[in-house]
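User: Predict Response regulator's structure from this.
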Amino acid sequence: MEPIEPIDALSELLQEERERIARLWAKRLREELYELDLPGRDLRAPLRRLLEELARLLKDRPDEVVQLWPEVVRPHGAFRYDQRFESEDLAREFKALQAVLLRVYSRRHGQEVEPGVAELINELVGEANASAQASFARVLRTEEVRFREAAVMESVLHHMDVGILLAEADGRVSFATPPVSRLLGVPMRSVVGERATTALAPVLAQVNARHATGEPFRVTDLPFMRALKERGPVRGVMMVVERPGGGEASLEMSATPIWEEGGELAGVIQTMTDRTEAATKTRELMSAQDELRRLQGRLLQRTRAQALGQLASGAAHALNNFLNVLRLRITLLRREFKPEHLDALDKTVGQVGELVSRLQEFNVQRTEEVLTDVPLDTAVREALELARGELEQGEHPLGVDLVLGDPGSVRADAGFLRELVVSLLLAAKDRMERGGRLALTTRPDGEGRLELRIQDEGPPYAVEELARLFDPLQREAGAAQHALQLAVVQAQVQRWGGELTVENADSGKGAAFVVRLPQVREAGVEEHAPQVAVTGPRRFQQTRRVLVVDDDLDNARMMAEVLGDEGYEVQVAPSAEVALQLWEKRRFDAALLDALMPEISGWELARELRKRTPQALLAIVTGMDVRGQNRANLALVDAVFRKPIDVGALDEFLSQSEAPTAEGGERAAPSVPPH
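Assistant:
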């Protein structure tokens, strides 16, 4: 076998495989330098010219190819300097040529490369690299001497953490500091001198640029493009990019327009800063905040349940003692009548009443309120954030639909109002074990009040459930604590002059908690209690017909029996609806209304009765503390009686000859007789 002449073998390779070698060389170079293949920019062109010159020298000047080839390559170093290559990039370029020549040759010759051919390739590439590096260094030294200040500035900018990019008024990128390339992970030399719309689109695509929300980041979203369009500064634009080596970076960008003396726009300076660490900490803080909200929701629920449980336990202990005395006294009274037994019974009932008063006083002291004008929508949003963790956790999370009408403000304690809404949200959640959606709606109700409706998708309530929903003395398993919480919430709403009711949906699916609170009047509008026209003096000397309205029939019948013994003609209504029907059928002189009733409260019923019969005597009978009840509600009635009722005071009220009046003929504030 004849020995192979290295120059002939390499010449033959370049004659037949030159285009393929140029393509592989360009591909290898792009991978090494993360170079972009931009439209209108042929990366292969300068490499193809070098290979053509090498092929010509191997064919025409084989004996001098090692000396002449470096001279041919020398201008390539200056060319790469103008393209903003680094010295290391130039070395990688020729190293890539060496690898490609050896690879193509070995594949053509059965995976073998003769030592002579390998030595020739190494020598040619080494000389070419040295020549290009010398040219690169000479231009660099010349530039350093000529533009020393610019070189110093370039060095400063190279070591800054902030990337700076300059754009001309026509959208052409004219300058980019090295940190821009570091921050993006892609060299920007291929972009400088090009129009942004053409050159930057492949850059953003390569780094998978996107907004913090996940939407793709477009060239027109860049701050300098917006500044050129809007002709003003653009601040704090965030962009997330993927680094070539893996991981993500969050970049903050701002742009400032530069104006010429004549007022013409010269261009825009855009800065780029790495905010990855700050963004990571922000995400961690947001995650911690979400967890804190979940813990707050759980803590609110747990603390409320524990406090109510302790209160109920202590009250039950004291009441059981009193009931034991009552039962023993009644047993003795059945065996033998003695006046002292009756006195003892009356004394014990008085002690029970004092205990209830102390419990109510405890509640007043416990809830030291700071009443302010609270925007209802704001309170609902804040409460939802507190409860969101509880609503969304578990196997069947709940979604929430907000339909907030910005109806205005209510007079309440902001903290207690938030806690109140949280309690209702969690109560609604308990009804939806399989998940679903809650609908929160706010609106004015047309009667001077604001309405919050919390609509669930749970099963509708049975009629008897609605009657017992706010009764804390239920005996069903698990119902007592739930009802006690709702009773506390209802009492709080009433203290602010509002009402809390539960309604089944008209569609037959789900139910809704409905909170109605008086709306705060706008500044400069004086709030007046509703006035009722009264024709002539109101006389009650012959009051005989009394309507007793109470959903607790035992209470109502006992009241009717006591008043009947006093000479009054009494009729009982178990609900507000029945009371209105009876009131339309006959004339009543007075009405005793239980404050807490399902569907329609005693206060609402008083408003309706006052419209129908302004002269009637109306009194609220309640076991709740009415301090804090709003003036508009109190003005509807003539008196408020606390349970247990003092029958003597009640008789005095019903037999009065004339309603109390204030100066000017307006009705006086209602009296609250002692119980």
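The chain has a mean pLDDT of 79.
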